[in-house]
Amino acid sequence: MTVYGYARVSSSEQTLAGQDADLRKAGAAKVYREKISGVAARWPQLEKLLHIIGPGDVVLVTRLDRLARSTRDLLNILDKIGKAGCAVQIAARDLG
Question: pTM here?
């Protein structure tokens, strides 16, 4: 079992540091990161992550809106993760 993190921000001015730190603190062995708009047709790092996961792995995000751009998209991504035999977890934000 491997815990993979996925972090995304929508613009190049934003930083991935907070998400990255939270995901690593929550146990992510590897974090896939991208700076790309939520309306983009493809998220290459997410696609890469979805191709490498296997049974027993965990996909970790800081918030569900980092994983998908719409409810329909989220359901499709969760279906792919579930069919791969994986789980999704949300890492709690370190507020203090």
Answer: 0.90
Q: Of 10, 11, 12, 37, which residue is the catalytic one?
A: 10
How far is the C-alpha of 81 from the C-alpha of 51, rounded, in Å? 10
Has 10 been annotated as catalytic?
Answer: yes
Which top CATH class is 3-90?
A: alpha beta
Q: What is the pLDDT of residues 31-46, one digit of tens each?
A: 999 998 767 778 999 9
- Domain coordinates in residue numbering, the chain: 3-90
Give the Cα separation of 14 and 90 in Å (integer). 20
